[in-house]
Design a protein that fits this description.
3-stranded antiparallel β-sheet; alpha+beta; 7-stranded antiparallel β-sheet; single chain; 10 strands
Length: about 190
Amino acid sequence: MTLKPVSAGLLGALAGLAFMCGPARAQEQAAAPPSPPEVKTIGDWQVRCFAVKNGHPCDMFQEMANKETRQRFLSVSLAYDPSLDQHLLQITVPLDVALQKGLTIQTDNYKSPILKFRMCTRDGCYVQIAAEKAIVEALAKSGPEAKLNIFADSNGKSYALQFSLKGFSAAHDDMVAQARAKAVKTSDAAKP
């Protein structure tokens, strides 16, 4: 499996979908409050569709948090752009990871190549890639759990962050169907 680099426009759209915040978003909010996303829970995944005009208005999302502190330590978002027939994957992990070592996704019958971190903010460190269908198909056929293998920057120790694949395939199919119904062509999304 090879990973395709994310184009600047596609990456910007992915970041906008995933974060739904920032200075430009704050100005929009001052003018008109954003509509909350439509959310449907399928298994352990949430399928979210945002009221935005872009090529991939929907994603499937899972977030893991510490039960005591409620602090997020992992989030996984997978979106689909029908006009490009391409999946967009964003993974967020805690700060203090060894950026140069990247991370891998591992299931009962699949292990990804090393996925490189793209950036870090105060909210965590992000992998953002245009994922080939092979990674999505492998996750859909695996289960019931997957893990992200990361390395701590401070001591180099390896850590496995687990997330659920329960409902992954059904959530993916629902998200793709909604994205196809609600998306605008990527070239049209760039027009004012």
